């Protein structure tokens, strides 16, 4: 089976350029839109510049995230802890990971009561954590929102996101490069949890990219982001689709079950593209006998980046590699495709499923 690296279509390059420009613009916005222009203070006076690696004022940062029962989520927390350990001027307080919304709310409330200098939150449910995040902001504690957005822009000073729509686009681009000359190609999709906006964004990006080469998703199931769910959903999909040319699986942890179902069904006519960028899926890419040809990165460094930015916010510093002196309002990370051509570059930094 031949393997090809998907070149990025011109329309996506244009979109990426526009997104970058938008991020630079949103980085200049105040947390409170009504406050912009209220006085004549220049942004140059708002936050001192300086090398971000230089020690600053000692600060305490609280971190709360979901339970690490998922390889990607475990990597998120580990990277955050390691990042905190790198700074002598940071005391990082990590709450026990939980999928209990009420418990996570109480964790953030405890950080507020303790008077920490900044809070980094990857919410189990962004909407449910919005109110307590607003409380922190109103108490003068900058909040960095990671991955799952709050439902109010007033709940966070800075938000760090993966590019869910871009993941779908990257997966679709790769499949278009492989199958774009076959209008009858059968494309399947194993999504995560359909009720989540991030899943909806991934599917929308995938569909939009396939449309560029006149392909569409013929068969689609959701696997609930678990190994068991991925295996069960894929088994059902394979029974319904006797022939498949390409399959995109949204999540590499879930992909362990997806691969098991493919192997149990003795299906080798298809190729598979993964999502998130786990080490085991990258090793599959290295195996010439595997159906896995690629995976799309969804960075597990988001909370670690959140710790870095929370430190700067708590210390009243900006980012020394930007002309704009303030920490940006929003940062969205890129979703590159990993294939046999570049897997050696990404594997050392991948998480284990």
Automatic annotation (TrEMBL):
One family name in Pfam for this protein: Peripla_BP_4
Main localization, broad class: other
Record key words, sorted: Signal
Subcellular location: Cell envelope
Signal peptide, first to last residue: 1-26
Record's keyword annotation contains Signal: yes
Chain intervals for the UniProt region annotation (Disordered): 34-59
Domain Periplasmic binding protein: start-end pairs: 61-317
Xref: SUPFAM superfamilies: Periplasmic binding protein-like I
Family designation: Belongs to the bacterial solute-binding protein 2 family.
PANTHER family listed in its UniProt record: D-ALLOSE-BINDING PERIPLASMIC PROTEIN-RELATED
Protein's UniProt name: Substrate-binding domain-containing protein
């Amino acid at each position: 089976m031949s393997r090809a690296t998907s070149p990025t279509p011109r329309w996506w390059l244009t979109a990426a350029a526009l997104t970058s420009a938008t991020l630079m613009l949103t980085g200049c916005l105040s947390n409170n839109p009504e406050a912009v222009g209220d006085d004549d203070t220049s942004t140059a006076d708002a936050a001192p510049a300086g090398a971000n690696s230089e020690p600053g004022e000692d600060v305490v940062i609280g971190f709360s995230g979901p339970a690490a029962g998922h390889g990607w989520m475990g990597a998120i927390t580990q990277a955050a802890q390691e990042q905190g350990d790198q700074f002598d001027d940071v005391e990082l307080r990590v709450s026990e990971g939980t999928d209990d919304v009420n418990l996570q709310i109480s964790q953030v409330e405890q950080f507020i009561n303790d008077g920490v200098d900044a809070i980094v939150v990857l919410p189990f449910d962004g909407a449910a954590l919005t109110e307590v995040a607003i409380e922190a902001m109103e108490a003068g504690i900058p909040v960095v929102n990671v991955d799952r957005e709050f439902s109010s822009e007033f709940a966070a000073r800075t938000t760090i996101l993966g590019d869910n729509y871009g993941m779908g686009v990257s997966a679709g681009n790769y499949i278009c490069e492989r199958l774009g000359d076959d209008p009858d190609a059968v494309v399947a999709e194993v999504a995560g949890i359909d009720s989540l906006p991030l899943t909806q964004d991934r599917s929308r990006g995938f569909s939009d990219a396939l449309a560029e080469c006149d392909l569409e998703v013929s068969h689609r199931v959701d696997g609930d982001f678990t190994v068991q769910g991925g295996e069960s959903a894929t088994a059902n999909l394979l029974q319904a689709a006797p022939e498949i040319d390409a399959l995109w699986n949204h999540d590499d942890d879930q992909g362990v079950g997806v691969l098991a179902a493919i192997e149990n069904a003795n299906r080798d006519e298809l190729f598979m593209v993964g999502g998130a960028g786990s080490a085991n899926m990258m090793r599959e890419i290295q195996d010439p006998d595997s159906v896995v040809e690629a995976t799309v990165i969804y960075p597990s460094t988001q909370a670690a980046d959140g710790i870095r930015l929370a430190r700067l916010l708590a210390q009243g510093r900006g980012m020394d590699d930007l002309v704009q002196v303030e920490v940006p309002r929003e940062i969205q990370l890129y979703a590159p495709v990993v294939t046999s051509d570049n897997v050696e570059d990404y594997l050392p930094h991948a998480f284990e499923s």
